[in-house]
Amino acid sequence: MVRVGRLAVALLASALLAPCSVEAQQANKPRIGILRAGMAHAQSGPESPKGPFMQGLKDLGWVEGQNFELVHRPADGKLDRLPALAQELVRMNVDVIVTFGSTIRPAAEATRTIPIVMIAGSSDPVADGLVKSLAHPGTNVTGVTWSTGTQLIGKNLQLLKEILPRLSRVAVLHDGVADKAFGRAWEDAAGPLGVTVQRYTDPDALEPTIVTITQSGAEAMYVVLTGVNISHRDRVAAVALAHRLPTFAILRELPEAGGLMSYGPNLAQLHRRGAAYVDKILKGAKPGDLPIEQPTQFELAVNLKTARALNLTIPRSLLLQADYVLE
Question: Is the four-CA dihedral 59, 63, 64, 69 of positive or negative sign?
Fold first, then answer.
């Protein structure tokens, strides 16, 4: 009886300790915080299980719920919420914060210790004061930039001029938190091509903004696909088309949504590269030692259906350069 009693006590103790053990194991899972400006759409956002970022993590052995936890903080288009959401991730002491597009700035202002992986972030993180150099960041920020600044914007304008030879005025629609280097890059690229640039920062009031743009004499609109704009790219493309305003961007997501043209890096590839940075950091690498990557491969996409709706002729020479022609 004594032996049975001791066994019962041992089993009881084991049962009581088991939940604590499970909780301890769960508590030990690294937590990845996601900060983005767009809407909380699980099917299209970077937190989507089938999206390139999460798929990239999975390919590297990271499975949500098994060996890491995901803490998702979308601003739902309310950009003024980003600082508070970034601070919330800091208070939760996540192991790494992943930013998409221009959300890098609120995250960097919220912490200088928690590693930050930017994906499609600042076009010039050195000029923006986020890192000391691309090769040796030297801060808690690393990741993948989404453009090469002046050269990429200049290439977009040159391609657009093949469609609109008399192009002289372009509107730029961004989400209000574009980095400083972005503005300088536009000035440097547009000036030599004889193009005047006007910037608009109110994507919430899309219809009146586009009306103002068309009344200003702008012949095309460049859409910065970060935050609010990428979440609402279908609507941006549709409203612009309704007002007969050609739209272009550096990401293929715009012509796929009904915009006219894009030339730039592959966004899905940038997301996968971001996942590789997260993997290295969770395995012990310091962000300050991880060189920041810039895109090296670019793709041209043209939407012929939109071109026809705008009564625009796409030169054959440009179509031959295109990686994607959307009918």
Answer: negative
